[in-house]
Write a structure and sequence with these properties.
SH3 type barrels, 3 domains, three-stranded antiparallel beta sheet, 10 strands, elongated
Length: 288
Amino acid sequence: MSEVIDGDMIPDIAIYGEFGVLDLLRVLLILVVAIIIAKGISVNLRRVLKDRMSKDHVEIINKVIYWGILTIAFLLVLPVFGVNPSGLLVAGGVAGIVLGIASQSVVSNLMAGLFLVIERPMKIGQTVNIAGTAGVVEDIRILSTTIRTFEGLYVRIPNEKVFTTDITNYVEHVARRLEYRVGIRYSDDADKAIAIIHRLCEEHPLTLKNPTPDIFVDNLGDNAVEIMVRIWSPSKEWYGVKKELLWKIKTALEGQGIEIAFPQRTVWFANELQKREMRDGADDPGMH
């Protein structure tokens, strides 16, 4: 705007200057608020994710969120400078659609990785089974999860598959139950065998007293009296306890004369059966 004084056109400097200062203050305010919000989210995100992901991956997520917030703030202040952001948004939207179609699996894995971080069904170092792959979680990246199997193999699983499949976490709960099925001969004393096993469970330093061990005769099989042994131990010590206690049960039972039963079959041959019948008949006085 301008005013005409004595035929001369004089720019309205005061009005223009006032308008520019207000716009400048508005721009500064938006940018400062955006920086404060971005830094606040970044600090809290580091605190939440420090035990869930590696430091490098946390920093990547922080940078994406931080610069994403600043980009939004920049788009908000563009109209102040006379720039219409709609054109940029349209161009960015078209580019986003093209890139989204081209990298659909990447985006899916990225989103799944973020959901895994939020839900936290597993942690680095835990023993899990993911879609039939059992092992120790080595790393949870943005796009994939790495498992070290018990055979020493490293398996990379896309996060989309991890998020949409069943995950069995063997150590998330503090305690885990182990089971044995011990078969003894019918001629052995089952009560004595149960007492021996119960004593071994109570004496072991890594078996839990609560829940208490559950030991009982579970089945009368074809070849053995089957004793079910159910014991609880710390999840992280479960495998070692299972190996050690099973061998102790075997040696303790055999030390008391109780044998572990094994499948047996009695086979009768036709000629031997005929000889036995003839021999039994010869011994029977009623046959003469």
